[in-house]
Amino acid sequence: MAVLPLFLVSALAETARAPFDLPEAESEIVAGFMTELSAVPFVLYFLAEYSSLVLLSILGATLFNSGFSLLLLTGVIILLAV
Q1: Distance in angstroms (rounded) separating the CA atoms of residues 71 and 17
Q2: Helices (H) and strands (E) in the chain, counts
Q3: Do 11 and 60 form a contact (C-beta atoms < 8 A)?
Q4: 79 contact partners, CB below 8 Å, separation of at least 6
């Protein structure tokens, strides 16, 4: 199961979490999105970031915790019930 550590590291890098938590250079942190966006765009930006966290969590659970086979089983049960 060498794919799981690769998925976890790439998910951390994609969502800009530690140790990949500097999406901008250190000299540009003062002039980045944290200071240039007002309230509503700032909230939308962070909602987009956290939605990617939720999406990658769902994807990881589906791929590595047999969620995919559970989805197939649920689909077969629904088709048989109809």
Answers
A1: 29
A2: 4, 0
A3: yes
A4: none
pLDDT in tens, 33-62: 666 777 888 788 888 888 988 888 888 888
* Tokens 């800009």, residue located: 16
pTM equals 0.62
Provide the greatest CA pair distance for the chain: 61
* Cα angle 44-14-62, degrees, rounded to a multiple of 5: 95
Peptide bond into 23 cis (omega under 30): no
What are the DSSP E strand ranges found in 1-82? Answer: none
Give the type of residue at 56. Answer: L
